[in-house]
């Protein structure tokens, strides 16, 4: 298990309940309440579920008391998320005692992993639905309404939900995620995702372009192409096997929808990000110069135990290549401290690699075992917890200094910023992001969300740029 200390997910959204649809005029006799936990894939999946439920006459609500269906879309990556979900299910069980007609279901990765426990041992839910089984929700709801326990956690080699247009719930109307693939083939020894989300399969390119184009036409100005490992996207036209779309091809085609549509992507695996992708990023101004390049460890020995398929030296060459082709590219990463058998020398290798790469953003964790992973079966979790936490604290402290210096280097510069909305701290200020994914706060004036403006950076904190607009783009 990866115990989080610094944000890897937007913690303000963990457990968020979706509100009514933006601009929705239809009234619904049945209401569903859904909370989402974990990575952005889960939040995107909740929007797919909302679309399926809407076709069945269900509308979303933030008030659990008026819902006839309660769903928790869950994550198995972190023990903290599982503990939170169990606590919430216990609370919903009490509501169900007052309202026996209420149906409670668990979706996603935790459903896949703990189906028997949730249904039979702890008797907390009526339905358990895996991430590849959302299309069967209507039938499962019908089955659960008869008093039966409804389960579908079968994994698929084909399901991409490519024909389902996700309902954009709680959207800012400016940025959106577009899922381009599902599953993962990498089998990193610490990770449970291949067992809960199945093998990689790429969504057909036409449906991705249609969704991104529709978002642009509705006023969205940024899309993030989403997948467990987007760089391995590979779609073969079923009508003509000679027509192949790689991730670089897809990235270009999305960028060509409009120069006003910003394009991001997440997440990359270092072994799969190619020169072709980097040159495509360099070619188009609207493809953001920001790459999430998970390192996990700076020690070649630990990387081998993690089954990451690259060495320290290879990773350094990849960083060098990115900076050669994209000199101004921002980098973020994931770091795990205290993996099985990690020594002080291994830890210092991680620290020195962080020094070399100078990440703009890092998601940092200490390791603890997740049931069902290769590491749980093969290795002993033998680094004492206090050592893991001490090493993590050192990594966090190192990165904090790097992050502040990265922000300070932007003071005095002017950036193109996409306005995402009003600042949470002041109604008189707007916030947006730079190409490098840095948040910028600046006075509102007469600007509106969805516009591009030039902002000169006057000051900064460790996590935010503070500036003044010099005009619209």
From TrEMBL:
<feature type="binding site">
    <location>
        <position position="184"/>
    </location>
    <ligand>
        <name>[4Fe-4S] cluster 2</name>
    </ligand>
</feature>
<dbReference type="Pfam" id="PF00919">
    <property type="entry name" value="UPF0004"/>
</dbReference>
<dbReference type="InterPro" id="IPR006638">
    <property type="entry name" value="Elp3/MiaA/NifB-like_rSAM"/>
</dbReference>
<feature type="binding site">
    <location>
        <position position="39"/>
    </location>
    <ligand>
        <name>[4Fe-4S] cluster 1</name>
    </ligand>
</feature>
<keyword id="KW-0479">Metal-binding</keyword>
<keyword id="KW-0819">tRNA processing</keyword>
<dbReference type="InterPro" id="IPR058240">
    <property type="entry name" value="rSAM_sf"/>
</dbReference>
<dbReference type="InterPro" id="IPR007197">
    <property type="entry name" value="rSAM"/>
</dbReference>
<dbReference type="GO" id="GO:0035597">
    <property type="term" value="F:tRNA-2-methylthio-N(6)-dimethylallyladenosine(37) synthase activity"/>
</dbReference>
<comment type="function">
    <text>Catalyzes the methylthiolation of N6-(dimethylallyl)adenosine (i(6)A), leading to the formation of 2-methylthio-N6-(dimethylallyl)adenosine (ms(2)i(6)A) at position 37 in tRNAs that read codons beginning with uridine.</text>
</comment>
<dbReference type="Pfam" id="PF04055">
    <property type="entry name" value="Radical_SAM"/>
</dbReference>
<comment type="similarity">
    <text>Belongs to the methylthiotransferase family. MiaB subfamily.</text>
</comment>
<dbReference type="InterPro" id="IPR002792">
    <property type="entry name" value="TRAM_dom"/>
</dbReference>
<dbReference type="InterPro" id="IPR005839">
    <property type="entry name" value="Methylthiotransferase"/>
</dbReference>
<feature type="domain" description="Radical SAM core">
    <location>
        <begin position="170"/>
        <end position="405"/>
    </location>
</feature>
<feature type="binding site">
    <location>
        <position position="191"/>
    </location>
    <ligand>
        <name>[4Fe-4S] cluster 2</name>
    </ligand>
</feature>
<keyword id="KW-0808">Transferase</keyword>
<protein>
    <recommendedName>
        <fullName>tRNA-2-methylthio-N(6)-dimethylallyladenosine synthase</fullName>
        <ecNumber>2.8.4.3</ecNumber>
    </recommendedName>
</protein>
<feature type="binding site">
    <location>
        <position position="188"/>
    </location>
    <ligand>
        <name>[4Fe-4S] cluster 2</name>
    </ligand>
</feature>
<keyword id="KW-0411">Iron-sulfur</keyword>
<comment type="subunit">
    <text>Monomer.</text>
</comment>
<feature type="binding site">
    <location>
        <position position="109"/>
    </location>
    <ligand>
        <name>[4Fe-4S] cluster 1</name>
    </ligand>
</feature>
<dbReference type="InterPro" id="IPR020612">
    <property type="entry name" value="Methylthiotransferase_CS"/>
</dbReference>
<keyword id="KW-0004">4Fe-4S</keyword>
<feature type="binding site">
    <location>
        <position position="75"/>
    </location>
    <ligand>
        <name>[4Fe-4S] cluster 1</name>
    </ligand>
</feature>
<feature type="domain" description="TRAM">
    <location>
        <begin position="408"/>
        <end position="471"/>
    </location>
</feature>
<keyword id="KW-0408">Iron</keyword>
<feature type="domain" description="MTTase N-terminal">
    <location>
        <begin position="30"/>
        <end position="146"/>
    </location>
</feature>
<dbReference type="InterPro" id="IPR038135">
    <property type="entry name" value="Methylthiotransferase_N_sf"/>
</dbReference>
<dbReference type="Pfam" id="PF01938">
    <property type="entry name" value="TRAM"/>
</dbReference>
<dbReference type="InterPro" id="IPR006463">
    <property type="entry name" value="MiaB_methiolase"/>
</dbReference>
<keyword id="KW-0963">Cytoplasm</keyword>
<keyword id="KW-0949">S-adenosyl-L-methionine</keyword>
<dbReference type="InterPro" id="IPR013848">
    <property type="entry name" value="Methylthiotransferase_N"/>
</dbReference>
<dbReference type="InterPro" id="IPR023404">
    <property type="entry name" value="rSAM_horseshoe"/>
</dbReference>
């Amino acid at each position: 298990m990866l115990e989080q200390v610094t944000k890897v997910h937007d913690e303000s959204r963990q457990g968020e309940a979706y509100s009514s649809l933006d601009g929705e005029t239809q009234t619904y006799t049945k209401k569903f309440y859904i909370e989402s936990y974990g990575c952005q894939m889960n939040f995107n999946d909740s929007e797919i579920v909302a679309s399926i439920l809407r076709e069945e006459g269900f509308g979303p609500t933030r008030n659990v008391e008026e819902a006839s269906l309660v769903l928790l879309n869950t994550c198995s990556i972190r023990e903290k998320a599982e503990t939170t979900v169990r606590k919430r299910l216990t609370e919903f069980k009490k509501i169900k005692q007052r309202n026996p007609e209420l149906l409670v279901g668990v979706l996603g990765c935790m459903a896949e992993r703990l189906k028997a426990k949730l249904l039979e041992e702890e008797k907390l839910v009526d339905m358990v639905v895996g991430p590849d089984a959302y299309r069967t929700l209507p039938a499962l709801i019908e089955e659960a309404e008869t008093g039966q326990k409804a389960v579908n956690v079968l994994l698929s080699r084909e399901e991409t939900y490519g024909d389902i247009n996700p309902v954009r719930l709680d959207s800012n109307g400016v940025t959106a995620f577009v899922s381009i693939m599902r599953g993962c083939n990498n089998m990193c020894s610490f990770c449970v995702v291949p067992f809960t989300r199945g093998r990689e399969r790429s969504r057909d390119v036409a449906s991705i372009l249609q969704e991104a184009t529709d978002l642009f036409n509705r006023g969205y100005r940024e899309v993030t192409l989403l997948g467990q490992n987007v760089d391995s996207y590979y779609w073969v036209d079923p009508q003509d096997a000679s027509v192949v779309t790689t991730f670089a091809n897809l990235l270009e085609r999305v960028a060509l929808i409009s120069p006003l549509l910003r394009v991001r992507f997440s997440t990359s695996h270092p072994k799969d990000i190619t020169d072709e992708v980097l040159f495509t990023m360099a070619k188009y101004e609207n493809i953001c110069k920001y790459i999430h390049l998970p390192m996990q460890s700076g020690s070649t020995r630990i990387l081998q135990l993690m089954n990451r398929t690259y060495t320290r030296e290879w990773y350094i060459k990849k960083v060098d290549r990115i900076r050669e082709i994209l000199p101004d590219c921002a980098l973020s990463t994931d770091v795990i401290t205290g993996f099985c058998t990690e020594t002080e020398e291994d830890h210092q290798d991680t620290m020195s690699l962080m020094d070399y790469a100078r990440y703009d953003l890092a998601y940092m964790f200490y390791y603890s075992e997740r049931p069902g992973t290769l590491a749980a079966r093969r290795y002993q979790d033998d680094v004492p917890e206090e050592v893991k936490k001490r090493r993590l604290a050192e990594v966090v402290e190192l990165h904090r200094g790097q992050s502040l210096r990265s922000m300070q280097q932007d003071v005095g510069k002017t950036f193109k910023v996409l306005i995402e909305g009003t600042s949470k701290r002041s109604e008189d200020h707007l916030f947006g992001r730079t190409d490098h994914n840095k948040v910028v706060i600046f006075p509102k004036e007469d600007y509106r969300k969805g516009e591009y403006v030039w902002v000169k950076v006057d000051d900064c904190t460790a996590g935010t740029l503070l500036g003044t607009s010099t005009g619209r783009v």
